[in-house]
Amino acid sequence: MPTSLPPQTEGDVLSDAQAMVLALEQAQCAAQMGEVPVGAVLLGADGRLLSVGANRTVCDHDPTQHAEIVALRAATRKVGNYRLPGASLFVTLEPCMMCLGALLHARLSRVVWAAADPKTGVCGSVESLHLHPTLNHHTRVSGGLMAEDAAQALRDFFRERREQKKLQKQAESVPSDQSPLDGAP
Ligand SMILES: [Zn+2]
């Protein structure tokens, strides 16, 4: 399951790059489930892995199940506290309004994202809510770490999905009462 911790990293203090690599792995888990590939990793104040999350909005029928929220819920339940001071979240896509709000409520120390999201990103793309002085006293937000890897995963996913839809349309355009073998000698 994407919410279980990768065993090789349990107990280690992770660098930013190592954390983002794990987040990218979570994004791949999401893609394998047919979800838009976004992954997140939460490190505790000690720099050790606390939780991971993969986007699962479609399979859970739940628009709040973005990777950041999945990781955040797993971490707060594990710690037994709705606030995670000192913790850092790494996510492969710029957070949306909902996720940034939740991350600020949790009082994380840092949020680091990879690829920009020109459609719903509120950490510089659509809005810059992370800089709002009355919203954010606690959390440093920065973007662009391994942006190209994360963006490539998204491009691959959407290209494959377009190709699948095209094939599906072609299959549907063959009248159902007509076998492809009709007219064959
Ligand atoms: Zn979100």
Could you describe the 3D structure shown?
With 185 residues, the chain is an alpha/beta fold. The chain is 37% helix and 15% strand. The protein contains 5 helices and 5 strands. The chain has helices at 16-32, 57-60, 67-79, 97-105, 147-172, and strands spanning 39-43, 49-54, 88-93, 110-115, 140-143. The protein has a 5-stranded mixed β-sheet. A hairpin with a 5-residue loop joins strand 1 (39-43) and strand 2. Helix 1 (16-32) packs parallel to helix 5. The model has no long low-confidence stretch (mean pLDDT 92).
Key traits:
185 residues, CMP_dCMP_dom, EC 3.5.4.33, tRNA-specific adenosine deaminase, globular, tRNA processing, 5 strands, 15% strand, alpha/beta, binds zinc ion, five-stranded mixed β-sheet, zinc ion binding, single chain
Order of strands, widest sheet: 2-1-3-4-5
So what's the oligomer here?
A: single chain
How many DSSP helices? 5
Largest sheet: 5 strands, mixed
Low-confidence stretches: none
Helix content: 25-40%
CA(first)-CA(last) distance? 52 Å
Please indicate the percent range of residues in DSSP E strands (runs of 2 or more).
5-15%
Ligand catalogue: zinc ion
- Structural shape: globular
Strand tally is: 5
SSE arrangement, N to C: HEEHHEHEEH
Structural category is alpha/beta
Radius of gyration, whole Å:
19 Å
Mean pLDDT: 92
Keywords: Hydrolase, Metal-binding, tRNA processing, Zinc
Pfam families: MafB19-deam
Subunit structure: Homodimer.
Family: Belongs to the cytidine and deoxycytidylate deaminase family. ADAT2 subfamily.
